[in-house]
Amino acid sequence: MKKILKFIGKYKIFLVLSVLLATVSVILQLYVPILFGDAIDQIVAEHQVQFDTMWVLLREILVLVAISALATWIMNMINNHMTYHIVQDIRSQAIRHIQRLPLSYLDRHSSGDIVSRIIADTDILSDGILLGFTQLFSGIVTIVVTLIFMFSKNFWITLLVIVLTPMSFLIARFISSRSFEMFHKQSETRGNQTALIDEMIGNQKVVKAFGYEEKASERFADINADLQKYSQKAVFYSSLTNPSTRFVNNVIYAGVALVGAFMIPGGALTVGGLSVLLSYANQYMKPFNDISSVITEMQNALACANRIFDLLEEEEESPDVGGTINEVKGNVSISHVDFSYDKNHRLIEDFNLEVDPGMRIAIVGPTGCGKTTFINLLMRFYDVHQGNIKIDGKPIDRLSRHALRSSYGMVLQETWIKDGTVRENIAFGKPDATDEDIIRAAKEAHSWEFIERLPKGLDTVLYEDSISQGQKQLLCITRVMLCLPPMLILDEATSSIDTRTEQQIQEAFDKLMKGRTSFIVAHRLSTIRNASLILVMKDGKIIEQGTHEELLAQGGFYNKLYNSQFQAV
């Protein structure tokens, strides 16, 4: 709750105004029974009714009711404003925080679960906050002000009400503690459900190709059954709250009526006065019923809030420094680097490499040997555990991540196209690029041919599945061609392109890599014959290095890898 209050604190002026309006509304609502009681007392006996006084009292009642309704309406508008701005702030902070989280966190959590926290859990939290503002706050004000009014009417009856009240709190607390656990499990299971749906829909072609539909349905049914179980238990426990508090409230109401009835004959209380106290007792108990219902929603909201704040409190990347590097030459020095994703399983050990400016470094090896990890370390997506990596003599941990990453142009095997025009997707890393620059880069990357065929050319709006995988790859290559970075990282950059286009792209890459330090991760070894140095990795270590011809002549691991590509399957 304290964490939520930090976000609410930004809107404390609105909060104070909301509480003041709630107080005004409650005071007016509580003054109305007094006027009703006075009106009742104007009925002295048969044919002895003070109608003039009664009509004055009734007009006052109507005015007070109208003002109270207006105050309540304004209060609800303010509460809505606060709630949705608070939720907006939480979501904005969550998105900013995700950008600063290490890749290790994103690797450990499914995208569906993260999406569920930011969207579904935050929606439920907003409902809880809104109920808290509209009912919880006004309910508390109602209880406090009602007690003050009751004390002004009769001390002993008010004391009776106060003595019996804790019963309602004890019952509500007992039940809510049971329901919170179920709501928490419900929220977690909902996240797992979203992750599975995202996984199945995003990979529907693979699911159908391998006949996985039945298994996917079984997995969904299991998760859905768990969600049903936790939801049912949460609703069951929470549904007990309201009837229990209503029972206590009825006991209080009956007690007020009974004690007040005994006081009337002695003159300690009038009939009108008892009607006022009974009205106050009912007004006093109503917030408990409302609050008991709110508690149910609040339990669900707090369970979701825990998941959201778990994300927000996740440790960010190590603090960024402000170091920059001007006119990158491309000298890369890697000295005694150790790294592992799992402390119990070492991946890269004592890695050493010296790269002169303009060299083309190819990294090859079997799956899981550490090729992609090596790229992640170069880009500082992960920090090394021991050793250091330097660019032009400067340790990369003393450079800002932006300065470091802007020194590289990356083309990965996995492509990413955002919802936007072709122009926006190409100029992603250089927003101020002119159409002439974009067209030049597209021609060099051999993507202009298919861009011209699109309905609106550069202005064509692209979506995830609106173009082929190979065309996506060409656009990603065009991005790099446009930026012309001082260093390049190519991770199987031509894997989704046909042989003819690959040859053209390779020529374009040769032109682009001229004079630039380049790191090439390749599975097709035929594409790296012209590399200045080939690193052969196995189990996180460099086991061989040299040119293509030198490595073939050695007849070692590289020779086996290269020749295996031409063997008949």
Measured between the Cα atoms of the first and last residue, the distance is 63 Å
Note the main sheet: 6 strands, mixed
The structural class is alpha/beta
Number of domains: 2
Task: Tell me, rounded to a whole number, the average pLDDT.
Answer: 79
Which segments are poorly predicted (pLDDT under 50) over 5 or more consecutive residues?
A: none
Widest sheet: strand ordering = 8-11-12-5-13-14
What is the level-2 CATH architecture name of the largest domain?
Answer: Up-down Bundle
**Number of helices, where a helix is a run of at least 4 consecutive DSSP H or I residues:** 20
Please provide the count of β strands: 14
How is this structure best described in words?
The chain is of the alpha/beta class and 569 residues long. The protein has two domains: 2-312, Up-down Bundle (ABC transporter transmembrane region fold), CATH 1.20.1560.10; 332-564, P-loop containing nucleotide triphosphate hydrolases (Rossmann fold, 3-Layer(aba) Sandwich), CATH 3.40.50. The protein is built from 20 helices and 14 strands. It has a six-stranded mixed sheet with strand order 8-11-12-5-13-14. It has a four-stranded antiparallel sheet with strand order 4-3-6-7, with helices on one face. The chain has a two-stranded antiparallel ribbon with strand order 1-2. A hairpin with a 2-residue loop joins strand 13 (533-538) and strand 14. Helix 6 runs antiparallel to helix 10 and helix 10 (241-263) runs antiparallel to helix 11. The mean pLDDT is 79.
